[in-house]
Amino acid sequence: MILALVGNQNCGKTTIFNKITNLKQHVGNFPGVTVEYVVGTVPNYKNCKIVDLPGLYSLNTYTSEEKVTRDFLYKVKPDVIINVVDATNLQRNLYLTMQLKEIGIPMIIALNMLDEVEKNKGKINTQELSRILQLPIVKLSTVTKKETEQLIYEAIQNKRIYNINIPNLKQQNKINEKYSQIENICNNVVKMPRNMSKNNSYKIDKILTNKFLGLPIFFFIMYIIFNLTFNIIGNYFTELLNQGIEVVSNMIIYYFETHEYNLIIESLIIDGILNGIGSVISFLPIIVTLYFFLSILEDSGYMTRIAFIMDKPLSKIGLSGKSIVPILLGFGCSVPAILSIRTIQSEKERDLSLTLVPFISCSAKIPIYAIFVSIFFKDNPAMAMTLIYAVGIIIGTTVTALVGRKRENDEGTFIMELPNYRIPSLKNTWHLMWNKTKEFLIKSFSVIFIASLIIWFLKSFNQELFFVPENESMLAMIGQKVSFIFKPLGFLDWKITTSIIVGISAKEAILSTLSVLTNASSNMLPIIIGNMFTRSSAISFLTFILLYTPCIATIGIIKKEFGIKKAIKIVFNQFFIAYIISFLIYRIV
Fold first, then answer.
1. Is residue 552 classed exposed, middle or buried when 0-12, 13-18 and 19+ CB atoms within 10 A define those classes?
2. Beta bridge partners of 4
3. Interior CA angle at 56 toward 134 and 419, to 5°?
4. Which H or E element spans position 583?
5. Greatest pairwise CA separation for the chain in angstroms
6. CA distances from 57 to 6, 97, 192 (A)
7. CA distance linking residue 428 with residue 407, whole number of Å
8. pLDDT score of 412
9. Closest CA to 89 of 120, 60, 62, 133
10. Burial (Cβ within 10 Å: 0-12, 13-18, ≥19) of residue 470
11. What is the pLDDT of residue 451?
12. According to the model, what pLDDT value does residue 59 have?
């Protein structure tokens, strides 16, 4: 049995879904449709599944959500629709209800947020509403276990055999007729005070979405979040975790030193497997911390305001406010940034966001910037770091604007509802954070791990498959063979080329590769780099690292989310743009 949760955006649908499934859910496919859906199992009911469909305002095929939901209803044919209706916005929500009713699938209404109506001294006659619509209504307030159990019981009781009816949803006379019916229904069953719209959320929005204060407040909030993520909480736990990884590594190294094992096996486990696992785990503290704060913003209702505030500036390059989330995440790590692009409805905006995100400098590049800035820009390191980030943003937005041209040609207008502010629920915040972290681990672990093993193999063996030092390996040979390509950029040493190649596996590996190939300790590496580069070639190198091909984990995520063609396109486009701009900068400087 399949139950389908359908409702407007921000109607509390996902909260109900999480409560019903006890957070036991997965991404699944259904016969006849190619889109993945969030599917959960209903406790105490054998073979009963519930699907959380995208939030939408109507079944017209204007947006991707409407297409996804219509495809599911018409092709998968769920047994019962649970239509989640926001009681505080009954008139707007009932338009979708009327459309769903015409399809003919058995349906019940979950009338949510009744507590907010009562708090504002409003009243809805649910018995009369049920009689007029001829649909069962289950009242929900705080979404308790008892309420959701009643909801599922009523849904299952309404299962029956039906025939799908595909109504014409775009006839203007029928649309006008529906709105007239809805207005009459609301006049009969709803009693709301006149000042209900001017609640606490309205008062808060007068400050947080103010055209003068909105952006400064937003940047201040993000500064605090990034500072806590990268400098305080995330950094502390990263160092703690790295110490733990180092202890485990030292224990394994000691074990191999005290037992006679083949050097290849020892290198495979320490340099290949341990490094591969460590590179994934080392992301976790920053990823978890960032997701925690973003989940609080999302659960409180402020994330929607961020999209609203940023819509006008981003519209200049063909994007809407919803693209701000991937952009913000991109400063931390490109993997979750790419994953978050799926929340954008418009296909064109998803493609444009995918164009922009790889230009946003992720935190993995910070150590590279830091060491080069400390060597070549001692006079004003802060200005140098600011310019590096500014160049990435300017080039990224320029390329995106050229690709996007004007948003008027897109498939839809940016429409957004601002939900009421809520005190974030610890359970919801934990759930959002855990789901995103789990998705990051599942999708990135295999890619990074396999890439680490490939890099280990290339840097450990020569062409005859003999186990050799890294500077005699196939990787070193590849670096030497292709180094001529990078000489016009000022990279005269083949070791620089090799580090760039290794950097595709993970940007953190660039400095460690230079260190290994030059046999330099961490204290000596700045001196070696100072001898390998001139000031102009260092600027060229920093520009190239800023712009060139993303790491293998990001490429893997792009492939899974957007397909192999777009992944290949991003790889070559980023390399080509980085090469051209670095070449020009080197020649000019």
1. buried
2. 51, 81
3. 100
4. helix 564-588
5. 86
6. 10, 10, 22
7. 34
8. 52
9. 120
10. middle
11. 65
12. 84
173, with CB counted inside 10 A (0-12, 13-18, 19+), is: exposed
3-state helix, strand, coil in the chain (%, to 5): 65, 5, 25
What secondary structure, in 3-state letters, does 456-487 show? HHHHHECCCCCECCHHHCHHHHHHHHHHHHHH
Write down the pLDDT at residue 341: 87
pLDDT of residue 33: 42
Q: What residues have CB less than 8 Å from 95, skipping those under 6 apart? A: 57, 58, 178, 179, 182
d(CA 456, CA 273) in angstroms, rounded, equals: 9
d(CA 157, CA 48): 13
Q: How high is the pLDDT of residue 184?
A: 92
> Counting beta carbons within 10 angstroms of the beta carbon of residue 23, is it exposed (0 to 12), middle (13 to 18) or buried (19 or more)?
middle
Q: Which residue has the tokens 């989940």?
A: 295
**What integer pLDDT is reported at residue 128 of this predicted model?**
94
DSSP string, 353-379: HHHHGGGSPPGGGHHHHHHHHHHH--S
Res 82: pLDDT: 95
- How are beta strands 107-112 and 137-139 bridged, if at all? parallel
* Two structure tokens written together for 580: 């051209």
Give the CA angle between residues 361, 365, 370 to the nearest 5°.
115
SS3 of residue 40 by DSSP: strand
Model pLDDT, residue 38: 81
Burial label for 251, CB within 10 Å (0-12, 13-18, 19+), is: exposed
Beta bridge partners of 41: 49
pLDDT at 96: 93
Give how far Cα 234 sits from Cα of 99, 227, 288, 358, 503, Å: 47, 9, 8, 22, 23
pLDDT of residue 32: 46
C-alpha 68/C-alpha 33 separation (Å) is 9
Determine the pLDDT at residue 239. 79
User: From CA 458, how far away is CA 505, in angstroms rounded?
Assistant: 12
Residues of the chain with pLDDT under 70: 23-36, 61-65, 169-172, 193-199, 230, 275-280, 282-283, 343, 345, 405-417, 439-440, 442-448, 451-452, 519, 521-523
Per DSSP bridges, beta strands 123-124 and 137-139 are unpaired
Query: How far apart are the two ends of the chain, measured CA to CA in Å?
Result: 68
* Residues 81 and 4: beta-carbon distance below 8 Å: yes
- Number of Cβ atoms within 10 Å of the Cβ of 162: 14
